[in-house]
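Thread: Newbie trying to understand structure tokens

Hi all, I'm a second-year student working on a class project, and my supervisor (Dr. K.) asked me to get a predicted structure for one chain before our next meeting. I've only ever worked with sequences, so writing a 3D structure as a token string is new to me. If someone could post the tokens and maybe explain what I'm looking at, I'd be very grateful. Here's the chain:
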Amino acid sequence: MKSFRKDMKIEGMIIRAFFSIFLFVSAFYSCSRSNSSSGKPEENIPHYDTLRIAFTGDILLDRGVRKFIEKHSVDSLFRPEIDSVFAANNFVVGNLECPATSIVSPINKRFIFRGEPDWLQAIYEHGITHLNLANNHSMDQSRRGLADTESQIRKHGMIPLGYGTTIAESIEPQLLAETPRKVYLITSLRVPSENWEYLDSVPCVSESSIATIESQIDSLKRLDSKCFVIVMLHWGVEHVEVPSHYQVRDAHRLVAAGADCIVGHHPHCLQTVENYNGIPIYYSIGNFIFDQKKPINTRAAIVTGTITADSASFEMLQVEIENCVPRLVEE
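---
Reply by user tm_fold:
Sure, no problem. This is what the structure looks like when written as tokens:
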């Protein structure tokens, strides 16, 4: 009987030991799967042999566009050929020319816009990956509306650009990709904001000076001489098809500092395209989703870029906007 109990005791110890080992292995396996599913940052970074990126002009979700959406849908703003262009690019960057928020807190200015945050979902589903906030309408519904817009953009799967809770954060260059080489995007509002003070440590958009952008480009190039830097500026004079003297001067300064491409918007029309020392300068690519109906405002463009480890090329696709909806123009 004692031998039997002793054997049972030993057997119980063996079973408990085995069970402990089983629990340890299971926990380790579960932890490994958890780490694998969450992934280390470097494991989740896509690898591109060729990076393709597209830029659109101003996207408005209010006024005439609001009426269009309420009558039709957000999806109706995107034609199949536009979807095809976006699908062919790894990143699509648009300029969101209004806050997208449920917060109604208008500041004192002439033109005040607001889009519904739920409409951002369709914009994401049609291929837009980044939305620029460094423009003169992002603040139309106050700092609370601006901060909520940034949150809504992220909630709906896109990346906001030119925004921060401090000035330093708002002007930080955005690393778009690590491969085929590092590609950065720097964005800034370069026209006066209306009844909006540029203060630190509160929600704001980038209002970087040209000198600051020059310094940023220089720093990036010193760290990595092969990196590719795109500068996107909200600047110029509205409804004027020729860039102003200050646009040309500043663009040339940025090229001299090492900018590899410059894309602009704000005038609500197409402006001159310049190749300066081999660098493309799109002074203004006009509107994209907008309700203005004059011919000068309905002619626009999508700029597409192809970047490899040692080369880059850009192309401008002509767009015509009909009843708020952009369509490609066959040349």
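A couple of things are worth pointing out once you decode it. The first strand starts at residue 51 and ends at 59. The chain is about 35% helix and 25% strand. Feel free to ask follow-ups in this thread.
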